[in-house]
Design goal:
Blueprint: E1 2-4, H1 7-14, E2 23-28, H2 34-46, E3 49-54, H3 64-69, H4 74-83, E4 88-90, H5 94-97, H6 115-119, H7 123-138, E5 142-146, H8 150-162, E6 168-172, H9 192-197, H10 200-213, H11 218-230, E7 236-244, E8 259-268, E9 271-280
Parallel strand pairs: 1-4, 2-3, 2-5, 3-4, 5-6
Antiparallel strand pairs: 7-8, 8-9
Helix pairs in contact: 7-8, 10-11
Bound molecules: pantoate.
């Protein structure tokens, strides 16, 4: 695997290849897990070259402590990427990505006003900006993202449309541990006891989905999920939304929807876990 640490170096390397090679791109912040590797493997199947990036992007963190504690595991990440045949890794220095502070701002409109957008001020501006920069640097044909960050997927879809990037967005299902916990780089910050409790989030989402499928009202489902989380003293509830799958706006009338997304964020001490589940109401 070729490793590049500056925009200039990777651009020079890729430039002669762009006309003949289809490039699949997997942007990450490192601390890789099976979920990331599934994205790389899928990219490998459908492209000539796979580029992954590892960059812990400071501008998308609204909490300095979260940024400082974000796991950094470069050697293990390189080995994992090599194990699934990743061709190129771009892992830039912060001063190479941001030689000067970014002065333009992105506004994703409605999708930014709920859930992650509402609770993490400026988060999607930071995500959108770094992904746009990475798209310009790598010039991929396809870009791969995980459904675990459902709202991020919508933001990237909007970025691609609004800024006419010639890139196909591929969204892959969430990869879970055997006990249901959604794989996340943040899971490694959980203590052993927290790790045992964390799967209760997905269990509560599944039970809430079943309730909705058996005809429960929005309020019943909302109350049920909230109670499940509040019943566990080591959880700190942040949000739960029953959301429109296309816009992530709060659903107000279930009869208008064939599918909805259940989306949640829960803290365990200072570790923030998010998860979601798409529910088919026709079942
Ligand atoms: O999902 C992530 O890891 C990050 O938000 C991304 C897309 C790599 C942008 O920094």
């Amino acid at each position: 695997m070729q490793i590049f640490r500056t925009q200039t170096a990777i651009k020079e390397y890729l430039r002669p290849l762009l006309s003949t090679q289809k490039i699949g791109f997997v942007p990450t912040m490192g601390a890789l897990h099976e979920g990331h590797l599934a994205l790389v493997s899928e990219a490998k199947r459908h492209n000539d070259l796979v580029v992954a990036s590892i960059f812990v992007n400071p501008t998308q963190f609204n909490n300095a402590n979260d940024l400082a504690k974000y796991p950094r595991t470069e050697d293990a990440d390189v080995a994992m990427l090599e194990s699934v045949g990743c061709d190129i890794l771009f892992t830039p220095y912060p001063e190479d990505m941001y030689p000067q502070p970014v002065r333009t701002a992105l506004n994703f409109g409605e999708v930014e006003t709920v859930m992650e957008g509402a609770f993490r001020q400026g988060h999607f501006n930071g995500v959108g900006m770094v992904v746009a920069k990475l798209f310009h640097i790598v010039k991929p044909n396809k870009a791969y993202f995980g459904q675990k960050d459902l709202q991020q997927c919508l933001v990237i879809k909007q970025l691609i449309q609004d800024y006419s990037f010639d890139i196909k967005l591929v969204i892959m299902p969430t990869i879970r541990e055997a006990d249901g916990l959604a794989m996340s780089s943040r899971n490694r910050r959980l203590s052993a006891t927290q790790r045992q409790t964390a799967p209760k989030i997905y269990a509560a989402l599944q039970q809430t989905a079943q309730l909705l499928q058996s005809g429960a009202s929005l309020q019943t489902a909302q109350d049920f999920y909230t109670q499940q989380i509040l019943a566990e003293p080591t959880f700190r509830f942040e949000y739960f939304e029953i959301a429109n799958l296309d816009t992530l706006a709060t659903v107000t009338d279930l009869a208008q929807h064939q599918q909805v997304a259940l989306c949640t964020a829960v803290f365990m001490d200072e570790v923030r876990l998010i998860d979601n589940l798409i529910v088919d109401l026709r079942k």
